[in-house]
Amino acid sequence: VQLVESGGGLVQPGGSLRLSCAASGFTFSSFAMIWYRQAPGKERELVAFISSAGSSTNYADSMKGRFTISRDNAKKMVYLQMNSLKPEDTAVYYCNARTMQRTFWGQGTQVTVSS
User: Fold this and answer.
1) Residue 78: its pLDDT value, please?
2) 61 by DSSP, 3-state: which?
3) CB of 20 within 8 A of CB of 7?
4) Helix, strand and coil percent figures for the chain, each rounded to 5
5) Residue 7: which region, alpha, beta or left (left: phi > 0; alpha: psi -120 to 50)?
6) What is the pLDDT of residues 38-79, one digit of tens each?
7) Mean pLDDT of all residues belonging to the chain
8) DSSP strand pairing (9-11 vs 109-113)
9) Taking Cα atoms as reference points, which of 1, 8, 4, 3 lies closest to residue 92?
10) Which DSSP string corresponds to 20-46?
């Protein structure tokens, strides 16, 4: 089982990034996918959720209107489009695959928002 995040980096405030998460080794289309993030000295927090079929999404309040989660079950990919980035969005972003019985984590990708 692997979840591999990519797309992180350094971006200026107001900029955009698109994170990707490539899944392998499990039945991707059966799993809900969630993006979490963890800033230094803070607890990991949920960023965005997408259901297994992609028909339902949900976001943390501070991300609504700025972030968009999507998935491509044929490619076994999940994405997080992040717009209007703020310094407080700086964190390591993690991809999580989840069912009632199982959960898998990626290794994370660093996003730094700074001028």
Assistant:
1) 98
2) helix
3) yes
4) 10, 50, 40
5) left
6) 999 999 999 999 999 999 999 999 999 999 999 999 999 999
7) 97
8) parallel
9) 8
10) EEEEESS-GGGSEEEEEEE-TTS--EE
The whole-number pLDDT of residue 61 equals: 95
Contact 97, 103 (CB under 8 A): yes
The number of beta carbons lying within 10 Å of the beta carbon of residue 84 is 12
Mean pLDDT (whole number) for 20-29: 97
Tell me the two tokens of residue 25.
Answer: 């080794």
State how far the Cα of 69 lies from the Cα of 12, in Å rounded to an integer.
Answer: 21
Q: Are strands 67-72 and 9-11 parallel, antiparallel or unpaired?
A: unpaired
Q: How far is CA 107 from CA 12, 55, 56, 95, in A?
A: 24, 26, 25, 8
Instruction: Provide the CA 61 distance to its chain's centre, in angstroms.
Output: 15
